[in-house]
Amino acid sequence: MKIAVCIKRVPDMESRFKIAASGTAIDETGLKYDISDFDAYAVEVALQINEKAGAGETTVICLGPDAVQETIRKALSMGAEKGVQLRADAVPADSLAIARALAAELKDGGYELILFGKHALDTMTGGAGTMAAELLGLPCLTAASRLEVTGARATARRELEGAAELLEFPLPAVVTIDEGIARPRYPSLKGIMAAKKKPLDVKPAQLGSVRVSVEKMELPAERPPGRIVGTGPDAVPELVRLLQTEAKVL
Amino acid sequence: MPNILVVAETRGGELRKVALEAVTAARALADAAGGGEVHALAFGPPGLAGKLGPLAAHGADRVIACEHAAYARADGESMSATIALRAAGFPLVLFSATAQARDLAPRVCVKLDAPLLSDCLTVALSGQSVVATHSTYTAKLVATLKAGPMPVVVSVRPSAVTPAEKARPLSAETIAPAADPAASRVKVTDVVTSGGGKIDLGEAPVIVSGGRGLKEKANFKLVEELAGAFGNAAVGATRAVTDDGWRPHEDQIGQTGRLVSPDLYVAVGISGAIQHLAGMRTSRTIVAINKDPEAPIFKVADYGIVGDALEVVPALTAAVREAKKGH
Ligand SMILES: Cc1cc2nc3c(=O)[nH]c(=O)nc-3n(C[C@H](O)[C@H](O)[C@H](O)COP(=O)(O)OP(=O)(O)OC[C@H]3O[C@@H](n4cnc5c(N)ncnc54)[C@H](O)[C@@H]3O)c2cc1C
Ligand SMILES: Nc1ncnc2c1ncn2[C@@H]1O[C@H](COP(=O)(O)O)[C@@H](O)[C@H]1O
Predict the structure, then answer these.
(1) Residue of A24, A243, A245 to mutate, testing the B interface (most B Cβ within 10 Å of its Cβ)
(2) Which residue's CA lies nearest to atom 31 of ligand 1?
(3) Contact, B84 vs B78, CB < 8 A?
(4) CATH 3.40.50.620 in chain B, residue ranges
(5) Which residue of B41, B72, B95, B170 could cross-link B56, Cys pair, CB 3.0 to 4.6 Å?
(6) How do residues A55-93 score in pLDDT, each as one tens digit?
(7) Atom of ligand 2 nearest to the CA of A88
(8) Which domain holds residue A48?
(9) Is B206-325 CATH 3.40.50.1220?
(10) What CATH number corresponds to the domain at position A35?
């Protein structure tokens, strides 16, 4: 099956972030970058579908500056066949602008299945995939925690709050990927060598108008230092007293 | 004078608490800007219209019930078509940041050609733009975002706003969907509910969460009993626990699970890995029970007890039951 996966390059979230002098972005010095979690799951899902079918082709698409080529190579080393960079100097905070640029690339690609992450770990917007589906006029399944493809139809599971839905839809379609679906594989040495020779197209990103800007980036307000109330069950009465009188939550 | 369309979420034909939060947020925005109209649109099976009084009581100038037998469940394609139609001319469309909005809001953005500000902690109007704060980088940073010119679509983090009454005379309307739900391409074939009547994590004022420190699946009943003692609590879990199948995946809180901000979050046997903190650090009060005094969870906890969860939790359950009796 011809599958496209849209992946974003994001910093390692274990990093200790510092705010850049501009006050509107993170300081990128010394950060390590990787594929955004949910997008890596999506790559894994695509690879597994095609492995099971014994045929197919997975294309990964990433919008951003040339540094994203490293991210695309990582997906290629996992096993994707082709990479596309939509070159932009910077990645905007506007999911609709990103979705437009991705949809323009996806439109005539002949993909039967298009995968996104549920949200990108840096922006945490959760818009681009569903927006791209809408722009392309395709059915969309948002936040799938399970996905199975049989011929021209697919079934999926989506976790709602307090329930889960099982759904069925025709292909081509867009699916955004939630947690719990697949653990991304580590690239093998062979995969890493093979990735170097795989095609990576570079095209300009058609971002159009960008209407979301970051005005300020801050560390969250520190929680006031907490306190250890005590040790073992003996501390319970004091805790309950504090919850009643101080926190007023009981 | 910005008019605001609120999408008021329902479940099983009943308004959710988040719907009242969303209307409260919209009313406050409109009033702060000198007064615009707030219209609240809800979807549900026939009979819904009679249940929308609380939307007017919380500040909606007009309440619109879009009724269809199929709307016992959400349907993204037909609902987004109706929302976009009703939103024409509205500078602001406001959702609650729920699983349902994650599906609906981006579709509405495309139909209205409007940018999205999602899962906002605070929202304000500034001239022709909307300014919002939003937790980013797995909750390690807070971004202030500006979107505009309007129209803009925003979704507000559940529990970030406390519902407040500001009654308007009830002006109600019942409409049919703008697109036939039967024509939607994505079909729900089954709904799996885990434990009927359970309070949803996104709405519960109290969450009791368990981690690997509970040692085995069976001990989760201690957590459930504590939640039961509070009476208004939901049960959450860490990924270590959902991975091991002790709890269903939808109970997972954190970077790759649910993002929650209850009034009280009780972390039992949870180390406090950053990926877990990402989902709960905005909780109003945090209590941690952990046998390791060095566990990182104590850094974010307001109150901590160092001790064995298997001993502390039953004592706490009994004490909470007792305290609740006094009310
Ligand atoms: C990409 C990625 C995404 C992730 N996403 C999430 C996520 O969304 N949510 C999430 O939760 N995790 C997530 N994780 C996993 C996270 O890193 C931690 O591994 C996980 O949160 C640890 O769960 P835990 O606290 O239950 O277990 P542990 O880290 O094993 O902690 C157990 C704690 O219990 C204490 N303990 C032991 N015995 C007792 C006892 N008898 N009484 C009291 N305390 C006791 C220990 O001192 C310890 O602090 C993610 C990880 C990665 C890499
Ligand atoms: N710069 C990008 N390049 C490729 N895909 C992206 C990019 N940004 C976002 N996406 C995709 O859109 C999803 C949702 O992103 P967001 O709307 O920012 O949360 C991500 O999980 C990716 O699949």
Answers:
(1) A243
(2) B271
(3) no
(4) 4-183
(5) B170
(6) 999 999 999 999 999 999 999 999 999 999 999 999 999
(7) 1
(8) 2-204
(9) yes
(10) 3.40.50.620
A176-211: burial string, b at 16+ Cβ within 10 Å, e else: bbbbbbbebeebeeebeeebeebebeeeebebeeeb
Stretch (H or E) spanning A128 = helix A128-136
Question: For residue A11, is it within any domain?
Answer: yes
Residues A152-183: tens digit of each pLDDT: 999 999 988 777 899 999 999 999 999 878 88
pLDDT at A120: 97
Phi first, then psi: give them for residue A240, nearest 5 degrees: -60, -40
Residue whose pair of structure tokens reads 């925005």 in the numeric block:
B29
> Which chain A positions have a beta carbon within 8 Å of B303's beta carbon?
226-227, 229, 239, 242-243, 247
Contact B190 A126 (CB under 8 A): no
Q: Report the residue from A13, A129, A244 with minimal CB separation from B138.
A: A13
Residues with CB under 6 A from ligand 2: A 6-8, 36, 38-39, 61-64, 91, 95, 98, 102, 116-117, 119-120, 123, 125-129
Residues of A with CB below 8 A from B115's CB? 94-97, 211-212
Residue with tokens 């379609």: A173
Look at the block and give the residue holding tokens 């007792």.
B322
User: Token pair for residue A102?
Assistant: 């991705």
Find residue B154's DSSP bridge partners: B94, B117
SS (H, E, C) A68-116: HHHHHHHHHHHCCCEEEEEECCCCCCCHHHHHHHHHHHHCCCCCCEEEE
Selecting from B185, B249, B286 the residue whose C-beta is nearest the C-beta of A180 gives: B249
Helix, strand, coil percent content, chain A, rounded in steps of 5? 30, 30, 40
A62 φ, ψ (degrees, to nearest 5):
-135, 130
* pTM, to two decimals: 0.90
Structural domain total, chain A: 1
Superfamily of domain B4-183, CATH level 4: HUPs (3.40.50.620)
ipTM of this complex prediction, to 2 decimal places: 0.91
Give dist(CA B303, CA B285) in Å, integer.
8
Please list, in sequence order, all residues whose beta carbon lies within 8 angstroms of the beta carbon of residue B104, skipping any fewer than 6 positions away. Answer: B7, B74, B76, B79, B80, B83, B95
